[in-house]
Amino acid sequence: MREHLLAVDVGTGSARAGVFDLSGRQLARCVVPISVHHSLPKHMEQDSEEIWAAVCSAVRAALAESGVAGESVLAIGFDATCSLVVRDAVGKPISISASDSPGLDTILWMDHRAIAETDACNSVADPLLDRFGGRLSVEMQIPKLLWLKTHRPDIWASCGQIFDLCDYLTWRASGSRKRSHSALASKWGYTPEAPGTPPLDYYRAVGLGDVMERAGLPAQSEPPGQAIGTLTATSAGELGLDEQCLVAPGLIDAYAGTVGLFAAGARSEVPFSAEAVLIAGTSSCIVRLSQEPISGPGCWGGFRDAAVPELWLTEAGQSASGAFLDHILKLHPAGGTPMKARHRAILDAISEHLAEEGSDFGLPISVLPDLHGTRSPLSDPLLTGTIAGLDLDQSLTSLHKLYWRSCVALACSISHIIERQPRRAGQPKRLLLAGGLADHPLLSQLYADATGCDVLVPKDCDAVLLGCALHAAVAAGAFASVEEAGRAMQFAMNHFPPSPLRQAALSRDHAMLKAMMRHRDELAALASPPVANTAVVHRVS
Description:
single chain, 541 residues, alpha+beta, Nucleotidyltransferase, domain 5, 20 strands, 18% strand
């Protein structure tokens, strides 16, 4: 009898695999790193063959650790970042790199090469843009596709299949060319309710009239709730499974975390408007679920059925959060390699500093953390960050100060984004938090204090992997609905209520963040060429 599930989560820097039983118990979890290549500034690339090899290694290691036999696995689910995998008509990789390295066929989600193409896409008046806060993001697929066609017509002419990464993984596993609604609605502009259809008029208007053929796109997206096929003989052998294992439609990684937290996180029931999900990783995503579509500036959505069937999803977030903290470690002389264990050791040390020195620890350092542009509430990939208050100290304590003030800035920025979400979404009172370093109690408490929300964090559970497994269980027919699966696979949550004293102390930091935004605009205006009779308009994102 098949009583187990496999979940695969491919992030920016690693592939993670988890083995679960049908009660939601995580039996094993294994992580395998993957590489990111920088061929030019703003160009970030990966090798999909390396990604698939990492997936296979992680799955095999997780199976071995769990002691579960491959023939006991009912279904496998995949979630991933919204990176773009470029292949020819027979499925062979095509390099998209300026280095011409043959394996680099994947444009990473955070690649910003297509800024001009993003502007071109946003200059075309179309109702589609309303679903993306009024403008597409450079992180989405349509601008990347237009860049490829414009700058590399030789490559474009050879393309036959271009995938969102999660759909590449399901294709690699099953051979099916079906594409998930999760990716096509939120990143490719398909209509928001599953099964979605492609925006053919918009594609033609921006110069992508042949994209259906070049990308091998389907006439409609694949809704959640049903399997898209079974493993091929080749992929079954590579993964250590068998050909009877079902394959679920792919998910965007933050949406898999939303499924896990929303459906299976143990908590009291509240209205959708009182709750938000925050998935923290290389970037941070704030996800709201609702029974009606909600859209607005700095938001992506609404998309129905992109995570939970019959519910609408709206997303906002930060373009770089974990990536920003990694950058701090790489820059500071005392930083070291930005591995998770290094981050946690620094957070532990900061906890001791705060206990001894109080909330002023790290001042006068102030940080504007937008080193990779902004996603919300203002979508602008050209905005930059600032660090003020530095001196010549290169000690470990100086690193702790800078790191802590960066964490405070990221948390205040999340609060700033939530405050500016559409009023129809409601002001959340509870934040479900997972991913990255979210389970460290110092950060969990910081997000509670910065947002004023009760923060709930999974206890001994990887919510992203569990959400992916839960999605696969429903697609395989083990449960009739996400709600039923959530009740069966429920996990405990740790509760971090906001502290009124710490909230009061953070009011200064909220004000400092907004002041730095104003100063950034003022400096940008001074740096710009003078224009006669033009007033300077200050903007706080």
